[in-house]
C-alpha cells in the first residue's frame, strides 16, 4: 500500500482555484478551535505571509535546492539551481529482476475474489510500477519531477492482538476475539517514506498509526478511534470515519465507497479486486499543516481481500501544505501518480534501485 505515501493510502498545494483562500481560512479556524496551546495569532500572521507571497511573487524567496531534495522523490543529482518553473529529466531506476509473460500471452486467473478478509497480505517486499509527477510550489515557483518508476513497499508479518476499547467504532471485533495487525512501509525515495500500522477488524481494514517522513519533518498520527480505510461491503456501499490524535490535536476525516469490481493483469495473472474510491483530510494544527486528497480527482485503490487485503493498484492525487520557517512562508507538495504491483509474490529482500 503505497506514498504513496507514498502511497500511500492517503494530501494541498497545487493552489487550485480558491484553494489559497481556503487554506488560510482552515488554518485560522484550526488555531481557534483545536485543543491545546496553538497560537492563533501566529498562524494568522503566517496566513497573511502566504497571501503576500502570491500577491507579490517578486518578494517570495526561491526554494533552496536542499529543501527540494528533502521534499521531492528524486536523487540529489537530479536537481539544478531552480528557476521560476523547473522541469527535471526522468529518473532511471533499474526494474526488478525476473520475467513476466509478454503482453500478448493469455493471462491466467489468480485466486477468486472474496468478500472480505481477516488476515494480511503475504509478508515481504513488493515493487510497484509507478507513473506520475511530484511538484513543490512556493510563491511563483513550481518545481516538478517525474515519480521514480519503481515504488518499494515492505509488508511485515502479522501479529494477533486484543481489540482496543473503541473497537465498536472500528468495525467490531472478529469472532476469534483477536485482530490481525501488520505494518506497510512505502518508500518513494531515500528521504520520503510512509509507514502505516494497520488493524483488521471484523468488517474493515483500519489505520492504527501513520508516520510520514521526509528530509524536512517526521509526523506521526495515532487516531482514536482508528480510521476505517476499507469497509467490506457490496458495490455502492459507503462509509465515513474520523479519528483524532489526542497528543497532537491532529484529525483525519475520511470518506470511502466501494465503486465497483475491477480486474487487472499482474505479471500474467488476472486479479480481481474491489475498487475503493476515497477522500481524506489530515489536519495538524500544531505544525500548521494540511494533507488532503484532490476533491476534483477521485483517489482510488484496488483491494484484493483474497490476497489478504493487498492493494493491487492505486491512483493518488494528494496535496500537502505546510509552513516553512526558513522561507517565512508556505510550501506545497503535490503527488499525482498511478501505481500497480509488479508481482503478486513478494521477495525476501528489497530490490536495489
Structural overview:
The chain is mainly β and 353 residues long. The chain has one domain (4-340). The chain has helices spanning 4-7, 19-33, 40-55, 65-71, and strands at 85-87, 108-109, 124-138, 141-146, 150-155, 159-161, 179-187, 193-200, 204-213, 218-221, 227-231, 238-244, 251-266, 269-284, 289-293, 299-304, 310-324, 329-341. The protein has an 18-stranded mixed beta sheet that branches. Strand 14 (269-284) and strand 15 form a beta hairpin. It is globular, with a radius of gyration of 20 Å.
Tally of individual domains = 1
Low-confidence stretches are 1-56, 76-96
Question: What about the largest sheet?
Answer: 18 strands, mixed
The proportion of residues forming helix, as a percent range, comes to 10-25%
If helices are DSSP runs of H or I spanning 4 or more residues, what is the number of helices? 4
**Cα-atom radius of gyration:** 20 Å
Average of the residue pLDDT scores? 81
Summing up helix and strand content along with how strands pair, one would put the structural category as mainly beta
Kindly report the oligomeric state of this protein: single chain
Shape: globular
**What is the H-and-E element order?**
HHHHEEEEEEEEEEEEEEEEEE
Q: What share of residues are in beta strands?
A: 35-45%
